Amino acid sequence: MKVHDFKTFCAKAVAGIGSLPDTVADRSIPIRLKRKAPAEHVERKRERRVRAEAAPLRERLAAWAGETEETLSALELAPLDELPDRAADIWEPLLGIARLAGEAWLGRARRAAVALSGRGALKDESAGVRLLADLRAVFAERQADKIASAALVSELTAIEESPWGEWHGKPLTQHGLAKLLKRYEIAPHTVRIGEATPKGYTLEQFKDAWIRLLPPSETATTPQPAWLSEKTADRNRNTTPSVAVANNGANPHGYGVVADVAVANGGTGLGDAKS
C-alpha cells in the first residue's frame, strides 16, 4: 500500500444569516451584507445570463493563472501584523495576485484585508471573544483588580447590547461563566474583597487572553485598562491606521468601510494606495 496526496482544496462561498461557527469564521474572509433599502434598486440575478456573461472573464482568469502560477508561488510578501495567523494564510495568495497587478492594487488589498479580517474585526465574531471584551469593560469600569463571581455575572447580564441577559433562554449564571472561561484556562477561585472571601476572578487572570484575543483598542463601550494601554503603546508606536471606518453615528451596525477598494475610473484615486 502507498500513501498518495490528493489536492482537494477549492474556494468556497458560504452564505447565511447571523454568524458562522468560530472554526469556519476564522478560516474565512467575511463579506458582510446589508439589507437593501426601499429606495435602492438592483438588477435581479439571472443564472443563465450571468454564466454566459462571465464565461470570457473566467477563461481569461484561467489562462492568466496558468501563466503566473510559478511566479505567484515564489512571491515573498511582508506579513501583515494586523492579521491573525489563519487570516494571514488565507489572504496571502490574494495579496500575491494584487502584487502582480501592481503596487496600487496591493495597497488596496492590504487595506481590505485589515478591514475584513484584522484583529479589530474579530471583536463580535464569537461569544467567547465578546465575553472577554465585556469582562475587560467591567474591570475597567470598576477600576478593580478582583471581582466576585456574583458581581461579575450581575454586571454582564446588565449590558443591554450583549447576550448574557438571555443566554440560551435565561440569564448567565456563575457556573455558565466559569464554563465559558474554561477554554481560556481561567477558573474562579477564592478572592479576598474587604472582609469577605467569595469565589471570583482577578484582573491578572485575564491579561494573557485579552492581549492575545482582543484588539489593542476598543470602543467607548469596552474601555481598556491602563496597564493594557501602556503595554500596547510601544507596540503601536509610529503606526497609523490603514483602513477608514465610519463613525458610529453614520454606521450604527459597526460595519467596516474599506477605503478605495472599488475600481476607480481612469485610475483616479490610486495615488494614495502606496502609503
How would you describe this structure in keywords?
275 residues; mainly alpha; 3-stranded antiparallel beta sheet; 3 strands; disordered C terminus
What does the secondary structure layout of this molecule look like, with pairings?
Layout: H1 22-25, H2 47-73, H3 85-101, H4 103-117, H5 127-142, E1 146-148, H6 149-157, H7 174-181, E2 189-190, E3 199-202, H8 203-213, H9 226-236
Antiparallel strand pairs: 1-3, 2-3
Tell the overall outline. elongated
How would you state the average pLDDT, rounded?
77
Give the H and E element order: HHHHHEHHEEHH
Poorly predicted ranges? 217-275
Computed CA radius of gyration, to the nearest angstrom: 23 Å
DSSP helical segment count: 9
Strand ordering within the main sheet = 1-3-2
Biggest sheet features:
3 strands, antiparallel
What level of helicity do the residues show? 40-55%
* Number of distinct beta strands: 3
- What structural class do you assign from the helix and strand content? mainly alpha
- Which percent range describes the beta-strand content? under 5%
For the termini, the CA-CA separation is 55 Å
Compact description:
The chain is mainly alpha-helical. The chain has helices at 22-25, 47-73, 85-101, 103-117, 127-142, 149-157, 174-181, 203-213, 226-236; strands at residues 146-148, 189-190, 199-202.
If you had to describe this structure to a student in words, what would you say it looks like?
With 275 residues, the chain is mainly alpha-helical. The protein has a domain at 127-214. Helix content is 43%, strand content 3%. The chain has 9 helices and 3 strands, in the order H-H-H-H-H-E-H-H-E-E-H-H. The protein has helices spanning 22-25, 47-73, 85-101, 103-117, 127-142, 149-157, 174-181, 203-213, 226-236; strands spanning 146-148, 189-190, 199-202. The protein has a 3-stranded antiparallel sheet. Helix 3 runs antiparallel to helix 4 (103-117) and helix 5 (127-142) packs across helix 8.
